[in-house]
Specification:
Layout: E1 2-6, H1 12-22, E2 28-32, H2 45-52, E3 56-59, H3 73-94, E4 98-103, H4 126-141, E5 145-150, E6 153-154, H5 161-169, E7 174-178, E8 182-183, E9 186-187, H6 188-204, E10 212-215, E11 222-223, H7 224-237, E12 244-248, H8 268-274, H9 281-297
Parallel strand pairs: 1-2, 1-3, 3-4, 4-5, 5-10, 6-9, 7-12
Antiparallel strand pairs: 8-11
Length: 298
């Protein structure tokens, strides 16, 4: 089974998939990013994907600068909507399924409970709106799609909240972190495991009929300050930096783009369809933090 991942090989999900693919017999994962495949230049997409001859396409490349998107709406939509649609079209031309990564930011965060796939999207900003437009473009271009909405992604790769907390703790005694936004921290290593599991099912079952939109997030929930405390407590046990975490409100940390107060996603539909559930977010966080320190020691 040959998986093509869109995006540079240092992206969180692309890097996690490349690593996970090496550990699986009969699986080959290749990543193609800029300049060969540039979602902002749709003319590059079809040929780059066709040349790779994939069995399944994983659409991981995206414009993810949430605040910057407010100033660059045209670019955000070009990449996340038009570009993502072109990736789906390329997969459809080859007659292969597409697995696309989307986001909790398609919701406004006003629901009291965890969001399910049938809840009506209502993005608060340009980034969420561009990702929602991408979901719609993908559904129109390739009926054989899995859209996987995820949230609060971190990993040993790229830039993310875990690395930011560790970096800040190395230089200060106290870190102020928002305490009134809730969600499911999700390891890109777990996302990669879920994608490979689902891809194997799609590859085996040519008559697979459960295509559509799914939520895929870490098990369990917390707020950003609780996430930060667990990261730093794990760091301390691993011989790394530690700092006190001070709870603040969203209004105390103004950002250009509004964030949903509730980013919790129910992954029950994915678990039922694919028989796969992510580990508890605490376990997955500990694994990533420990790995980052092991890497530093070698």
């Amino acid at each position: 089974m040959r998986l093509l991942v869109t995006g540079r090989d240092d992206g969180q999900v692309a890097a996690s998939l490349l690593e996970a693919g090496k550990a699986r017999a009969g699986v080959e994962v290749v990543a193609i990013g800029r300049p060969e495949l540039d979602l902002a230049r749709p003319d590059t997409v079809i040929d780059a994907i066709a040349l790779a001859k994939p069995d399944i396409v994983v659409s991981a490349a995206a414009y993810t600068a949430v605040d910057q998107a407010e100033d660059e709406p045209d670019l955000a939509f070009a990449v996340n909507a038009t570009g993502a649609g072109k990736v789906a079209e390329a997969a459809a031309r080859l007659g292969v399924p597409l697995i696309h990564l989307s986001t909790d930011y398609v919701f406004d965060g006003t629901k009291a409970d965890a969001y399910v796939e049938t809840d009506t999207p209502a993005p608060l900003g340009v980034y969420g709106a561009s990702k929602l437009a991408g979901e719609q473009a993908i559904a129109a271009a390739n009926p054989r799609h899995l859209i996987l909405r995820t949230a609060w992604v971190y990993s040993p790769f790229g830039r993310n909240f875990v690395k930011t907390m560790l970096r800040l703790a190395a230089g200060r005694d106290e870190i102020s972190v928002v305490a009134d936004q809730w969600g499911n921290p999700t390891s890109a290593l777990d996302i990669a495991g879920a994608i490979l599991h689902a891809a194997a099912m799609l590859h085996r079952d040519k008559g697979f009929a459960a295509f559509g939109t799914y939520h895929l997030a870490g098990t369990g929930e917390t707020n950003w300050s609780g996430f930060a405390r667990h990261i730093l407590d794990t760091s301390l046990k691993s011989g790394g930096p530690w700092a006190r975490v001070r709870d603040i409100a969203t209004m105390d940390y103004p950002t250009k783009a509004r964030r949903p107060a509730n980013s919790r996603l129910s992954s029950a539909k994915f678990a039922a369809a694919f028989g796969w559930t992510a580990a508890d977010w605490r376990e997955s966080t500990e694994a990533v933090v420990r790995r980052l320190f092991e890497k530093d020691r070698h």
